[in-house]
Amino acid sequence: MKNSSQGETCRNCRELIGAALDNELSSGETAELMGHLDSCPHCREEWDKFLAVKAGIKNILEKEPVPAHLEKNLSAALAKESGRSKRRQSITMAMAAILVALTGLAFLNGKSLTEKSNSSKISSNAKEQAAAQRLAEIVDATSHNTDNTNCQDCLVNFVGRKAGDEMTKLAGFAVLDSKLGSFELSGSDLVQVKDGNKLVRLCYTSKTDKRVNCIDVYQAPSGTITIAQATEIEINGKKLRQGKIGRQAVVQYTAAGTDLTFVSPLSQEELTALVKPNV
Amino acid sequence: MFAFGQKKKDTADSVLNDWVKQYSRELYQFALLRVNKREDAEDLVQVTFIKAYRAYAGFRSGSNPRAWLYTILANSIKDHLRRSGMSEISLEDESDLLSQLPDPANSPETALIEKDEQERQSQALARGIANLPEQFAAPLLLREVNDLSYKEIADLLSIPIGTVMSRLSRARNALFEIMNKESSDPTREKAGGEK
Question: pTM score, two decimals?
Answer without folding.
Answer: 0.55
